[in-house]
Amino acid sequence: MRRILLIGQDPLIAWALEKKIAPLGFHLEHVYTLTEAKLRMRRFHYDALLLDGLARDEQEIFTSTIGATSTIIVLDDVREPMHAPASNMLHLKKEEALSTLVSSLKEVL
């Protein structure tokens, strides 16, 4: 089973994503803060990290400190990042996340 870590403040999106991707063999874990995410990442490997609603500076600091071991999918209101994304980073519009996340995960994982 592939593990995915969602970092964000919206438990409803976590619940909906889990229901959508669980039948496809993905397990979603949800944390609210970057600190919680870093603690989990020390113990477990995640195939993908979903960043939901983080500020641009939080995204950049977090992605620069974790390395490039996981695919990073940013759920945001803006499709394009402020700076060029890393090769392992994908941006999705949040309102399209449920409909496009499954196909995006299949493509990048």
What does this structure look like?
The chain has helices spanning 11-21, 34-43, 56-66, 97-108, and strands at 2-8, 26-31, 48-52, 71-76, 89-93. The protein has a single domain (2-108), classed as Response regulator (Rossmann fold, 3-Layer(aba) Sandwich), CATH 3.40.50.2300. A five-stranded parallel beta sheet has the order 2-1-3-4-5. It is built from four helices and five strands; from the N terminus they run βαβαβαββα. The mean pLDDT is 81. Strand 1 (2-8), helix 1 and strand 2 (26-31) form a beta-alpha-beta unit. The chain has 109 residues and is of the alpha/beta class.
Count of domain modules: 1
Tell me the strand percentage band: 25-35%
Helical fraction: 40-55%
Total E-strand runs: 5
CATH T-level topology:
Rossmann fold
Determine the structural class based on helices, strands and strand pairing.
Answer: alpha/beta
Q: What CATH first level would be assigned?
A: Alpha Beta
Q: Please report the distance between the alpha carbons of the first and last residues.
A: 12 Å
